[in-house]
């Protein structure tokens, strides 16, 4: 160390930067194993069967202290004092990094999970809260013998180099139609290569050009300082005989991330296997909108046996003392100094990342990304500044091109460009702005080589939705249920086997490919039988005849199917012999005439008897009695015999006229039932009669 540590720190061109890696490239869905850098969830459901990164290098440096034009910077006569533009504030910062992604690879474990193993070497420098306005003028003021006051306050600077060996596991957490979520975790073993930091607390420097008078009466400047300086380091880098050895330093870290995808057209990316199981195409990006959130670089490296120097600089020295400072030994003679050997932790540059990716259309995307530091400025902390990037890109399997536009917290707007062409990726987040801006405040570049093994589009030669790999008939379209083969027709009845319920017996389409049967055995096939479970005659379409009124006369024979009747009356109810009918019969009977004293009928009685036969036929189920009567002239026996003979004569006429003998009976009452007096001729005429009455 050639100057006082304080002055050396202050003379560093106070810078401010974002230590970013692979800007633009990490937004690509084909970044593969490199994607674990920003979000470990990226490797799940990726476009790769496997991805092997051979080597990738990214370097970044930016600041808010000095800006230089590109043409001036590359000019052979570049002069810093003349060509550089200083942007001095009371709070200048700096940071930069080199990130080397070594041999790394990822592969899939089943359909839902992926694993990555990666190696990485990183170096990082950062400084915060330097008072650039004061520091820039300090040496000039001393050289020009001008009074000067530096109120530096607190400031921090740190540098760290380390290696990582990590393993990442990521898997699908949710896959519900248009909603998809995946998560990932990286565990990292850290090996420290070197670390140093400087911290200032309440530092002030007051230079008085005439502060002291020498014995020869000349005046000399004095440098009055206050505050504390802490200088920690993993090894004694200031020793002139220093020989680097890998320090005893290691630690652990982890990254955690999640990615959500909105897939409104998810059905377009579903592949159905021969077993009916549905899987999502691996070779396609399925989302319309993707959101990612991750927390990276959580952890620290512990350096054992580190050196911690503490300088209390509350002292006043002369300009000669200042000019004679060559190394730390000189400082120790001027200021209160203590040194301790103890373990020292170097925190990683923890950051929160949010990413939103919109698929505009087909291969065109627009990405928004922000990185927010989760480390506060402090001793031995590596800290990134906030950045917001908007990156339009064209993306395909073998080629991608992107134009990141980034706004950095300190160094302003940067415009870059990058591309990926098969195994090569190269780009810069500041490429375009470097050549177009008048003042360059930062620059970065990255490049790498890898061996990508992409998923191919599943082949479906017959277009039946089943990939050839799982299709039993890859050249003939067929349904999933039949292993991708068309259905056959085993029995040749034109009903395909998947719909044929009797695929070994020919049958009509309307009976699902089965032959018709006669279930009830009535000789009528079921297709024509309207009552397939009840035997019935052909004329009634295979159904048994009904007896609607339950009178035991089947409807086909029942002339009154809805009224209970009798068999004899063809299913109709029998007519009732009313008193009027009875009276009408007897009126007819009174006109039946016999020859005098005989039982023979007179011819003029024939029409009357024919009418009586008609009346009796109207009541086929009614039985009647034919009663013969006489007057009292003659003996009782003679009259009895005559009445019986006459009743029998009428009965015989009726039987001859078609009346059933079972329905009529003949009986003679002689003179025993007169209806008038026999004393007079008129009465005796009334008593000579035949009556036809309803049998009781």
TrEMBL record:
Pfam families: DUF5723, OmpA
Keyword Signal recorded: yes
Gene Ontology CC entries for this record: cell outer membrane
Highest taxon of the lineage: Bacteria
GO molecular function: calcium ion binding
Compartments (UniProt record): Cell outer membrane
Transmembrane annotation, as ranges: none
Signal peptide location: 1-19
Protein keywords: Cell outer membrane, Membrane, Signal
Cross-referenced PROSITE patterns: OMPA_2
Residue span, OmpA-like domain: 581-696
Full protein name: OmpA family protein
